[in-house]
Amino acid sequence: QSALTQPASVSGSPGQSITISCTGTSSDVGAYNYVSWYQQPPGKAPKLMIYDVSKRPSGVSNRFSGSKSGNTASLTISGLQAEDEADYYCSSYTTSNSVVFGGGTELTVL
Amino acid sequence: EVQLVESGGGLVKPGRSLRLSCTASGFIFGDYAMNWFRQAPGRGLEWVGFIRSKTYGGTTEYAASVKGRFTISRDDSKSIAYLQMNSLKTEDTAVYYCTRVVGYTFGTDWGQGILVTVSS
C-alpha cells in the first residue's frame, strides 16, 4: 500500500483534458509545497513534469499543470496527445525527512 | 547536460552484498544532495534514501525498508554516489535509479537505472 493515493487508471481522448489526483496527509502533501509529478513511459526512466506543486521544468509542455488543496494534489493534462500515454506518479517530501510516492496512474489516450 | 550513470548491478544471492555506483557529470556534484529510488518489476516507484551535500553535513536518510542494511555515501572528488546494499533480500529485486536533488525535488534528473536481482 502506497503512502499517497492515486487512481489506478485514467483515460481520455485526444484533445481532451484529464486530471489525476494524489491524496496524502498533513504529514506529507498537506505539510509543504513539495509535491512532484513524474511521467514514466513503458520501459523508460521517469521524467520530472511538475515540481513544488505547480512549477514546470524547462522543456515541459505548458499542457501540464499542477495544483494542491489541503492534503490533495492534482496533475492536469490539457489537449491530450498520444505521446502523453504513460504512467504518472506523484511524490511528496514528508515531515519525517523522507519521500513518499503514490501507487501510480496509468494514462490511456483513447 | 546533466548525466547520471548507474553501474554495479546484477544477480546476487540472498544475504549477500552489492555496491551500486552513480557517476555524475554536467553539474557541480558537491553542491547537490543525491538520492536513490527503486522500482520492483511491474510495481511502482519507491524511495530508498538520500545523502545531503557536505554543506549540509553529508548526512543520510533512509526508507524504513532498507534502514540498517543499505548505506549511501559520496565521493565528491570523483563525482560518484554509492549505494552499499548488505543482507539483501529477494524483495530488494528492482531497477535502482540514481537521481539529483534540487531543493526538495528528489527526482530532478534521473539515471537510466540498473537492475539488481536477488535470487538463489
Jot down its keywords.
heterodimer, A: 110 residues, mainly beta, three-stranded antiparallel beta sheet, 9 strands, 44% strand, B: 120 residues, seven-stranded mixed beta sheet, 0% helix, globular
Give an overview of the whole structure.
The model of chain A has no long low-confidence stretch (mean pLDDT 96). Chain A has no helices and 9 strands. Chain A has strands at 9-12, 18-23, 35-40, 47-50, 64-69, 72-77, 86-93, 99-101, 105-109. By secondary structure, chain A is mainly beta. Chain A is globular, with a radius of gyration of 13 Å. With 120 residues, chain B is mainly beta. In chain B, 0% of the residues lie in helices and 53% in strands. Chain B has no helices and 11 strands. In chain B, the strands form 2 sheets. In chain B, strands 2, 4, 5, 6, 9, 10 and 11 form a 7-stranded mixed beta sheet that branches. Chain B has a 4-stranded antiparallel beta sheet with strand order 1-3-8-7, with no helix packed on it. In chain B, a hairpin with a 2-residue loop joins β9 (94-102) and β10. Chain B is globular, with a radius of gyration of 13 Å. The mean pLDDT of chain B is 98. At the A-B interface, β3, β7 and β8 of A face β5 and β10 of B.
Proportion of residues in β-strands of chain A: 35-45%
Uncertain stretches of chain A = none
In the predicted model, the low-confidence regions of chain B spanning at least 5 consecutive residues are none
Structural class of chain B: mainly beta
**Major beta-sheet overview of chain A:** 6 strands, mixed
Dominant shape of chain A: globular
The oligomeric state is: heterodimer
Question: What helical percentage do the residues of chain B reach?
Answer: under 10%
Largest beta sheet of chain B, briefly? 7 strands, mixed
The span between the termini of chain B is 40 Å
What's the overall average pLDDT of chain B, rounded? 98
